[in-house]
């Protein structure tokens, strides 16, 4: 995007536009001038997150150096407060940002590619990645926010449009400067705009240096004036009018004789000119405009080469100019910092204690926070791209009091930023995590913790209360229970999906107990309300067991960590954490080195383990989810117990994991030889594993049906199997999926009602004659070959040496055995004839059905008539060759005993055997050697399927 490239152009191509300054020195100078008040400065945490983390640290890839970050922020806050009287206010991005969705999608795609580079580098070289590949560790933004609370630094969180609200705060409340790294702030003519990437704190804490951007100097070098900046920013390309719509205009400014003109069309793809070339060309064009107020004439000239959507482009050009004009308004006169600072100080200690008392003023504070930004056009009302407009059912109505409390806490950074947007819009953005997309052993973080988020959505929308109310209504009306689904859109960038396509995730409610509504969870003050908050938090993380609440086993500040680890241990897709890896997490949490930043800095990790990097990233993503659930449930855990620096350090985890890999039984070695720490680890491990069967993975339940409103094409990608938590306690043996009496052991491996077809095909025989044949499936790798499936009617069961032949096929039914007196299944004449007719007709109909799947309807009818005639002929032949069927049992003769030579002759010539009527006499099989000349032996090798398959065992 052209606007984003202006920041780099300002630093590299405009000499004199970026000058070094010392912020503490400026603050001390300003403090000596009347009025003698503190020098407030605004920090944009969204663009300065890397510097707030403490800059580049080589071990950031291990999961986060949280104690090192805490030490840096402590030194920064003390230096600003005591050395120069510089008052910090940190503003976090709490917006959903749908107006900047394509930009966010491109950034997320780039972060995914960087994550793959990091994983490959660590896997091959076992060293930290280069500085240029820095990717913010999971949960970094919330860790910085918690650290600001600890050091009493004021925190603000934006709600709708991050850039406009930051500029409104800076403009309306008299801040002395803005520390950020975003081109939009540079183009909005901020008088004191400082670089966050160049921010450096000296070792003694007396100097805080950075670069100040002088936009007036950059505009002078580009030949622009202040009034040119909104039009200049609109024509560079931005989130309202993207580069793709301005590509033809940018190439026309260069002309056909430009050296880069040959790159205009390459391989049928849209190629954009370099950013610095576009900036120079657009600045020359804007400086030549005589009437900046006639936007229609400018738009017609800009889009004169456009061949489509002319009116839409003109309209968006006007909106872009209006957007940057509103952001570039001068500061209101006589506006001091006292109004915002004092109001924020009075609300700073309010947190969760008395939200109802200030609920009415929350909306007023929110409108005041916007200031003059109320005249800024709302970008959320603009039309979004068509592929983003996915219809979902309406969200349940949330009470106005709950929404006021949510907005109040959101603006002051007291609540997870996504909660307000879930309540109002039903949408949530997922960050990118360091994970190997080619590793099937570890699931993606967004999928691993999806079930926990689903229960949190159910808590937010009071789904349990809705279920209970609708159940009572259905009982009164004697009607079926119909609960409308609650769907939340989760936006994430993954391997198998686009970032601009959301995952539609259904909210769930607890099965074990009825969770109270959201108002009761947030505003209830009774003692039972506190216990309900805690139980809701534990239930969302599948950790509702008494052992975790026992301080003798799990210390309070380690409860959140143990809940996340327990949740990871119950992943239905397979075991994520091995025993030694779980011990490594617990051992580093109780280590004394965790609270010694100097020792952690001197700690050296010889080889960075790639699996340890991914496990740490998954764990911190789980901590991020736990912080979200804690705020959803009314914050049952105080924020002091949610700080990751109290239970995790990435480098320390890598060192413990390396020791565990060398000797997996050396728990004492991981605990630095201290028996007390070993006892703590064992107690926490016992509490985490209580009621979890680790011998085999738990069986995944069937996937939930998708809502009825979705089109069929959208069901598979958006509704993966959902795994509700298993009941607590040890799983009974017969409930295990691998137990022989488990119902799953008797189910077919294919879909219900569909029998598998062998890869070699099969044929249908009636009284020894082949009347039908069908093809098979493609052979499956690694399973070996299968013999041809033979369905026979009128052929006896095979007996070998008095034992049943082992076969995985279906056995002879009782109806089939009635035709054979030699297996003690005699019946009357009428029963034999009727059963023979029904069996022949059923098999003939199955043959016609198999033929109808591959032929047209006419051929199917023809095959049906043919099969009926074949079945009748087969029946007549069977009755002719079996006189015992039509002869009463009293008149039947005993079977004739055959000699060895006669048996061999008939076995080698089945046609002669049928002519002699020898089918009436059942020979003993297995006397001759098997071979291709022996059809009986070949039939025995094929292991035919006879009849239906539910009869009793074969008799010797």
UniProtKB/TrEMBL annotation:
Stretches with biased composition (Gly residues)? 357-372, 946-956
Q: Which GO terms describe its cellular component?
A: nucleus
**Highest taxon of the source?**
Eukaryota
> Matching PANTHER family, A to Z?
CONSTITUTIVE COACTIVATOR OF PEROXISOME PROLIFERATOR-ACTIVATED RECEPTOR GAMMA, CONSTITUTIVE COACTIVATOR OF PPAR-GAMMA-LIKE PROTEIN 2
Known SUPFAM superfamilies for this protein?
PIN domain-like (SSF88723)
Q: Which family does it belong to?
A: Belongs to the constitutive coactivator of PPAR-gamma family.
This chain belongs to which protein, by name?
A: Family with sequence similarity 120C
Q: Which region ranges are annotated with the description Disordered?
A: 351-378, 920-956
**Gene name?**
fam120c
């Amino acid at each position: 995007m052209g606007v984003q490239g202006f920041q780099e152009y300002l630093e590299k191509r405009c000499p004199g536009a970026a000058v070094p300054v010392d912020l503490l020195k400026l603050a001390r100078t300003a403090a000596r001038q009347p009025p003698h008040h503190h020098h407030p400065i605004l920090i944009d945490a969204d663009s300065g997150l890397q510097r707030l983390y403490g800059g580049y640290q080589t071990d950031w890839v291990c999961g986060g150096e949280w104690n090192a970050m805490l030490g840096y922020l402590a030194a920064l806050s003390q230096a600003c407060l005591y050395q120069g009287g510089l008052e910090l206010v940190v503003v976090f991005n709490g917006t959903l940002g749908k107006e900047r969705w394509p930009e966010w999608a491109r950034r997320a795609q780039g972060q995914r590619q960087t994550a793959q580079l990091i994983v490959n580098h660590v896997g091959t070289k076992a060293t930290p990645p280069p500085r240029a590949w820095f990717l913010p560790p999971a949960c970094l933004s919330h860790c910085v926010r918690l650290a600001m609370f600890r050091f009493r630094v004021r925190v603000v969180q934006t709600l709708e449009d991050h850039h406009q609200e930051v500029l409104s705060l800076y403009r309306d409340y008299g801040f002395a400067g803005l520390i950020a790294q975003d081109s939009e702030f540079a183009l909005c003519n901020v008088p004191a705009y400082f670089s966050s990437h160049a921010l450096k704190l000296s070792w003694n804490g007396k100097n805080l240096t950075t670069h100040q951007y002088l936009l007036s100097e950059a505009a002078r070098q580009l030949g622009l004036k202040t009034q040119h900046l909104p039009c200049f920013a609109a024509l560079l390309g931005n989130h309202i009018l993207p580069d793709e719509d301005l590509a033809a205009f940018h190439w026309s400014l260069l002309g056909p004789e430009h050296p880069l003109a040959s790159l205009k069309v390459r391989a049928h793809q849209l190629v954009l000119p370099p950013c610095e070339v576009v900036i120079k060309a657009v600045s020359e064009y804007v400086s030549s405009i005589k009437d900046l107020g006639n936007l229609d004439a400018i738009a017609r000239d800009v889009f004169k080469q456009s061949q489509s959507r002319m009116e839409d482009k003109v309209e968006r050009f006007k909106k872009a100019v209006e957007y940057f004009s509103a952001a570039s308004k001068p500061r209101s006169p006589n506006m001091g910092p006292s109004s915002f600072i004092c109001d924020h100080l009075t609300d700073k200690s309010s947190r969760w204690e008395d939200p109802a008392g200030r609920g009415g003023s929350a909306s007023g504070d929110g409108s005041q926070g916007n200031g003059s930004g109320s005249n800024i056009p709302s970008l959320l009302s603009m039309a979004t791209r068509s592929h983003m407009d996915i219809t979902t059912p309406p969200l349940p109505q949330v009470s106005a009091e709950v929404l006021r409390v949510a907005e109040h806490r959101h603006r002051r950074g007291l609540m997870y930023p996504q909660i307000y947007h879930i309540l109002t819009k039903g949408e949530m953005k997922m960050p990118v995590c360091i994970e190997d997309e080619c590793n099937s052993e570890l699931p993606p973080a967004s999928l691993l913790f999806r079930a926990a988020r689903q229960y949190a959505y159910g808590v937010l929308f009071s789904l349990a209360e809705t279920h209970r109310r609708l159940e009572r209504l259905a009982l009164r009306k004697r009607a079926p229970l119909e609960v409308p689904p609650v769907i939340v859109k989760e936006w994430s960038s993954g391997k198998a999906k686009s970032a601009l396509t959301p995952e539609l995730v259904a909210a769930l409610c607890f099965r074990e107990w009825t969770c109270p509504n959201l108002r009761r969870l947030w505003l209830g003050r009774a003692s039972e309300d506190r216990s309900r908050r805690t139980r809701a938090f534990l239930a969302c993380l599948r950790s509702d067991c008494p052992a975790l609440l026992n301080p003798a086993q799990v210390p309070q500040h380690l409860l959140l960590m143990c809940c996340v680890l327990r949740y990871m241990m119950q992943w239905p897709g397979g075991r994520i954490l091995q025993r030694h890896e779980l011990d490594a997490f617990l051992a580093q949490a109780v280590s004394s080195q965790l609270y010694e930043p100097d020792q952690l800095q001197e700690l050296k990790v010889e080889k960075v383990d790639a699996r340890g990097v991914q496990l740490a990233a998954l764990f911190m993503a789980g901590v991020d989810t736990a912080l979200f659930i804690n705020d959803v449930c009314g914050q049952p855990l105080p924020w002091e117990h949610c700080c990751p620096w109290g239970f995790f350090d990435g480098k320390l985890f890598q060192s413990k994991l390396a020791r565990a890999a060398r000797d997996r039984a050396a728990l004492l070695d991981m605990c630095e030889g201290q028996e007390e720490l070993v006892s703590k680890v064992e107690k926490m491990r016992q509490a985490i594993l209580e009621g979890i069967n680790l011998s085999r993975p738990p069986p995944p339940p069937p996937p939930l049906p998708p809502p009825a409103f979705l089109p069929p094409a959208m069901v598979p990608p958006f509704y993966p199997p959902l795994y509700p938590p298993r009941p607590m306690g040890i799983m009974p043996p017969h409930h295990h999926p691998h137990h022989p009496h488990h119902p799953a052991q008797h189910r077919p491996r294919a879909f219900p009602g569909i029998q598998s077809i062998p890869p070699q095909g099969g044929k249908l025989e009636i009284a020894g004659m082949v009347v039908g044949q069908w093809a098979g499936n493609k052979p499956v790798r690694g399973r070996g070959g299968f013999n041809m499936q033979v369905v026979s009617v009128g052929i006896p069961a095979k007996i070998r040496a008095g034992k049943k032949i082992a076969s995985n096929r279906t056995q002879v039914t009782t109806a089939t055995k009635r035709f054979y007196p030699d297996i003690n299944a005699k019946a009357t004449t009428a029963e034999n004839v009727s059963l023979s007719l029904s069996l022949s007709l059923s098999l003939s109909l199955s043959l016609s059905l198999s033929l109808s799947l591959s032929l047209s309807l006419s051929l199917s009818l023809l095959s049906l008539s043919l099969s009926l005639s074949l079945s009748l002929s087969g029946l007549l032949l069977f009755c002719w060759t079996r006189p015992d069927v039509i002869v009463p049992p009293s008149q039947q003769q005993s079977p004739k005993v055959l000699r060895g030579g006669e048996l061999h002759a008939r076995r080698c010539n089945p046609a002669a055997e049928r002519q002699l009527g020898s089918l009436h006499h059942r020979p003993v099989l297995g006397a001759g050697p098997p071979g291709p000349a022996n059809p009986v032996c070949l039939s025995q090798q094929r292991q035919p399927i006879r009849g239906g398959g539910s009869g009793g065992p074969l008799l010797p």
